[in-house]
Design brief:
Length: 412
């Protein structure tokens, strides 16, 4: 704000200097431009020379025209009025005039000062508007991203219907709430995970200890009869089954929906999500020198969450960028019963057909991901989870080096 205040003061000083400079220039004017009566006298003299007389009603500053004669020569060069003498032919004329140059100069000065003052007022009002409506609200929220990055999620933003920052403030507050929710869910997940590990590790200890005891007993030949040894072997097997059950619990817990993805049931136009995808990736893929095209389609209303649908297509396109060969990526459309199919195709698919069924598994990465360091194995997994929650589906095919991932949206 201090920098803006300095600019504001500089603008005020500049306008003050302009006003002073303009007034100095106006009142320093001299000659014909500053004395309009001289123009009238010269025009009247030219008219007399041409016609022998002049109509003084046409000239605002001339009050009288008199020719020198023997009768008036005593008073010709006297009087209280302002006059100019001009010789026209063999005659001498006196032109009485009203010195109105001050009037014109004052009028010009007033006009210039009024214009400069109005301009200054407009600029000052505009700068105050920018300060109060843009800069002051911005300075209130400028530290919010920094606070969020530090994990300070407890202070909600006040509702603001400002036409410039209203949506920004609403979005930042939604981001804060989402981060707060995710933080709480993460802490809860970590707590449950810790409890699960402690519980299962305790439960595993009992059958494991029994197995170890039975093994030592068999090793030392404490059980001599074959029937007894058979009984011990069965006990070991049962304890191993218990351990296997605990391991299954761990695997099941790891495969649960740990991301807690939420979907809002509504309707949206196909053109809405295609427009957002095209707008984002047209420039990005152009910079990457990847041919990008969107096929023709007829617009329709689809069921689901528009924002989540965009996220699904983004994940698929990003997957195509990472694991394709940079040749092309295109989006095509087709219909099947009451569904609209959106297919993202990319060149350079080197994935083995045996690996294709696993590409939608969480944290799974194929053999073609060896040279890709920024993948997490969650993109297509998230896409499938979201599509399932929207009542749709997603599947993939790979043929002749072209990967096709198709999202199936239900029509409204």
């Amino acid at each position: 704000m201090k920098a803006f205040s300095r600019i504001f003061i500089a603008v005020l000083v500049l306008f003050a200097m302009l006003c002073v400079g303009a007034n100095v220039y106006i009142f320093s004017l001299d000659g014909v431009n500053g004395r309009p009566y001289r123009v009238d006298v010269e025009r009247a003299a030219a008219e007399i020379e041409e016609n022998g007389r002049a109509d003084i009603s046409k000239y605002e500053s001339i009050t009288a025209i008199e020719k020198l004669t023997d009768k008036n020569k005593d008073r010709f060069y006297g009087g209280n009025s302002d006059y100019l003498i001009r010789q026209i032919g063999d005659d001498i004329y006196r032109f009485d005039y009203t010195a109105s140059d001050g009037y014109y100069l004052d009028k010009t000065a007033v006009t210039v000062n009024v214009i400069l003052s109005l301009t200054a007022v407009v600029v000052i009002v505009l700068m105050l508007y920018i300060r109060n409506r843009l800069l002051v609200p911005f300075f209130k929220y400028r530290d919010m991203p920094y606070q969020l990055s530090k994990g300070n999620l407890n202070i909600p933003l006040k509702e603001n219907k400002h036409k410039f920052f209203g949506r920004f403030v609403w979005g930042m507050d939604m981001l804060r709430e989402n981060l707060e929710t995710h933080k709480a869910n993460e802490l809860k997940l970590q707590s449950e995970k810790k409890k699960l590990i402690l519980s299962i590790s305790h439960d595993i200890k009992l059958p494991l200890s029994a197995i170890k005891l039975y093994s030592k007993a068999l090793e030392k030949r404490l059980y001599e009869g074959e029937d007894k040894q058979q009984e011990i072997a069965q006990s070991i097997n049962r304890k191993a089954d218990e351990i296997e059950g605990f391991v299954s619990q761990i695997v099941k817990a790891s495969n649960e929906d740990f991301l807690q993805l939420s979907v809002k049931e509504s309707e949206f136009y196909l053109s809405e999500i295609v427009g957002k995808i095209s707008e984002y990736y047209a420039d990005k893929l152009k910079l990457l020198k990847i041919d990008f095209s969107v096929g023709k389609y007829s617009d329709c209303i689809l069921k689901g969450d528009a924002d989540r649908a965009v996220e699904v297509l983004q994940n698929i396109v990003e997957n195509a960028v990472k694991y394709g060969d940079g040749g092309f990526i295109d989006i095509s459309f087709s219909d099947e019963e009451d569904c609209r199919l959106v297919t993202v195709s990319n060149s350079g698919c080197t994935l083995a057909l045996s690996e294709l069924p696993h590409i939608f598994d969480s944290f799974w990465r194929g053999s073609n991901a060896e040279n890709v360091n920024d993948g997490s194995g969650l993109g297509l997994y998230i896409a499938r989870q979201l599509m399932n929650k929207m009542g749709g589906e997603v599947f993939a095919t790979c043929k002749d080096g072209v990967m096709k991932v198709t999202s199936v949206f239900r029509k409204f």
